[in-house]
Amino acid sequence: MKSIAKTSIFIALTFFCSSAFSQNFYPVKEIPSGKALVYIYRPSSFTGIAVNYYVNANDAKVSTNQLRNGTYLVYYAEPGKYAFWSSVSTVFRLVHLDVEAGKTYYVRAKNCRGFTIPATEKAEKEIVKCNLSEK
After folding, report:
1. 130: CB partners within 8 A, 6+ apart
2. Hey, which end of the chain has fewer CB within 10 Å, N or C?
3. Could you read off the pLDDT of 2-43 as tens digits, one per residue?
4. How confident is the model over 54-102, as pLDDT tens digits?
5. 121-130: long-range contacts at Cβ-Cβ below 8 A with a sequence spacing of 24 or more?
6. What global pTM score does this model have?
7. Contact at 8 Å (CB) between 43 and 70?
8. Where does the pLDDT of residue 135 fall: very low under 50, low under 70, confident under 90, or very high at 90 and above?
9. What is the pairing mode between strands 60-61 and 71-77?
10. Residues 6 or more apart from 21 whose CB is under 8 A from it?
11. Where are the domains positioned within the chain?
12. Which CATH class is domain 2-132?
């Protein structure tokens, strides 16, 4: 019985350490000509962990993948004004962003409480802890 408990603790610690210290963010190397790069990311948090949702840019989905806890999406935008939004049940999230070609922007999802435009330095530190959303 003690060996089962020890094994369970070892497996839990191994999983925690590998996920806590892995950095699976892969920055885009080159922005397509005439486009802006927008990262939409959601830092890992226990709050809202089971809630996943699609993110929209104006009237179109950013991705066929949902934004999940601890993930990010990549969106190439034409220059102009955007409303990035999502809706889950009765909660509507929205943030406005005016983008210019050749620049990189960050939109931070605050779990179930909306979107913000964080300072670039803060976003760069947070997004490296996220994985690309693939589901």
Report:
1. 24, 25, 41, 42, 43, 44, 70, 71, 72
2. N
3. 556 554 444 444 444 444 444 589 999 999 999 999 999 999
4. 999 999 999 999 999 999 999 999 999 999 999 877 778 899 999 999 9
5. 123/39, 123/41, 126/41, 126/43, 127/25, 127/39, 127/41, 127/72, 128/23, 128/25, 129/23, 129/25, 129/43, 129/44, 129/70, 130/24, 130/25, 130/41, 130/42, 130/43, 130/44, 130/70, 130/71, 130/72
6. 0.80
7. yes
8. low
9. unpaired
10. none
11. 2-132
12. mainly beta
Dihedral Cα 74, 94, 57, 105, nearest 10 deg: -40
Q: 98 is written with which tokens?
A: 């005016």
Q: What is the side-by-side order of every strand in the sheet holding 56-57?
A: 60-61, 56-57, 80-88, 91-99
